Input
Amino acid sequence: MKIAIIAIGDELLIGQVVDTNSGSIARMIDPAGWSVEYVKVIHDDADAITAAVDEAFAVADVVLTTGGLGPTKDDITKLTLCKYFGGELRHDPTVLDNIKEVFAKRGIQLNPLTEAQAMVPTSCRVIQNRVGTAPIMWFERTDGKVLVSMPGVPFETLQMFRAEVFPQLLDKFHSDEHIGHRCVIVEGLTESKVAIQLDAWEDALPPFIHLAYLPKPGIIRLRIDGHHTDDSLLQSTLDQLHAQLCDIFADHLLADADLTPEESMLQRLRAKGYSVATAESCTGGNIAHRITAIAGCSDCYHGSVVAYENSVKINILGVDPAVIEAHGVVSEEVVAQMAQGIRKAIGSDCAIATSGIAGPGGATPGKPVGTVCIAIATPERTVAATYHFPGTRDRVIDRASTTALTLLAMALK
Amino acid sequence: MKIAIIAIGDELLIGQVVDTNSGSIARMIDPAGWSVEYVKVIHDDADAITAAVDEAFAVADVVLTTGGLGPTKDDITKLTLCKYFGGELRHDPTVLDNIKEVFAKRGIQLNPLTEAQAMVPTSCRVIQNRVGTAPIMWFERTDGKVLVSMPGVPFETLQMFRAEVFPQLLDKFHSDEHIGHRCVIVEGLTESKVAIQLDAWEDALPPFIHLAYLPKPGIIRLRIDGHHTDDSLLQSTLDQLHAQLCDIFADHLLADADLTPEESMLQRLRAKGYSVATAESCTGGNIAHRITAIAGCSDCYHGSVVAYENSVKINILGVDPAVIEAHGVVSEEVVAQMAQGIRKAIGSDCAIATSGIAGPGGATPGKPVGTVCIAIATPERTVAATYHFPGTRDRVIDRASTTALTLLAMALK
Output
């Protein structure tokens, strides 16, 4: 199934907002074997929209548009599509009820502009937008090709695409083929090392199976995709190949499913009944933020100290000033003490501690920008090591956080 | 000047990587009055690239491509462009020297694949990539239209576009017009309220001035853009209009320049010689992370406590268990005590404290998901208030963080 995505909005083309919708949609449909042929980001302009829809139908079975459905006069997607597909606008009372409900929930007064969102083209079928006010419009051509117009607010687009639009598309473009996936996350190996290790294994894959390398900074996701009319053959093949991958990368397996380092760490903490706390200098609270971004983390996570200044390391974490004096604050000795200190201060079983030079300033002789010391502590042991991460301040903070979370997850295996 | 951007890479169309380059480029060129006509995201496919370049030259003066310049065989942008513009590949010793230097810095061994990146089309002028190995290629048509091919790694693209590509483009497409901008950040008003307040003011703007509304969750950026052949007239007009905006929104002015809430807060802390610390429950370290993401924050920021569990609030921040018992942990009374507690624990002048229900679970009668209590403390006073933020967990955390940082920045005016 070939998909073309048209993202509509002036704000996308002045860089005020980044189009994350297209990537999110692509991520959802890719495992179904559906492919995004291209994404085009265009202005709120009737001619541009019309030309883009023509171009899209020429190559795609399904055209998805996002954006341009707001209540203000610069949002012209609905009118343009109404003209494109013929017919006129009609008032849809169900849409109005939905808008009233959304506004009531938000405690906002309905105004005439928003009320006009209840006008929809006669040529489309409406899918109620349960999380916003702009109705989703499903247009169908006589040749069976479909255009679905969705709002641009990522939160609305993704919820509605996942819950309604994608299932309805799958239903319409039904295939006898079953699809399936398995995922493993490998840490501590470069992409080329993984590829070399999998060379023979990949060559022996059956034709209905494909392996995707999805590298992220510090980790590599390997996803086995398969499609077959025989679902039980498909599932057993996937299970077998998944078990082989887990076996091949046993020493470097961060997770046997599609988990982030923090999700994997929380899962393993939970399995052992452990809790974790973080003591962060150069990562500045980012590790705590990544842990607490996960709903339900509170059973294994109780708190953190961001110890940016030495006085905080000394007074709250109990780091020995003499150790700072002797080894410098960016040292394995100091992060080891920070890890012990935060375990005591929070009363946690495990700990993560970081101290480093995120840059651009702060480099000292022998400790260039990107130098980060990380300690992880479990009830059994505390280990500390020094890393050198390339790039700008935000990249150093991100890589250090990923590495620290991965280290603890691996130590808990 | 009309720009078309082509982002090349299979990884962009399966949603593995989001194309942030196009937005960053748009943000940089927009203030110069240059406009991005559209962005097209396409596969690593020779036909797709060729067709996209044809399409782009039909409407744009300058075509920018990103991606597809890696050393592996799926990266075919260079070969395709070489064929498109005619000529052949030649070995460029300067590019090889640059690659060797980059690799030496990273401490990686040079391999034959990477060495092949020193082959460049005879039809292009090379701009050395100082932060990566893929050379940047400047192609020029006989009619003066230009295509610049840049790597896809955001870090490389942006640094090189800002430092080399954009200045060279500005130089080539030189205009007698000067450009200028002023920015103010307004908080606590909706976009429509701002628009109503500015109605007459906008109508009276001279024709060479344009006002852009750039709303972000919780704040609105107002940017005055101008262009004129008379630079001193332009600058004095911009100054005057900027002063008027500052005056109109005096009570809601978060910043008189393009600053984030955390940058504005740090600026005002610095002006008063104050420091800040955070005590975070529902924001889980995100406020600390946003402060420490700014280089040089250490003169006003010393540390934080993420007090996710009650025991941390009580033991480290000194919150009175009886107050938690009486008012609930999500209460103005508790955040006020957290703010006082963190000031004492860290020894800071000012403080931010948060406690709320980020969701999806955790709602209690009268305190639905999205309820967040925020306290800010200065040496003069401590104030606490309750907010209700809509949306998912990540949005609640983000909005609560922005609001808290904005509140302290406004209190320091």
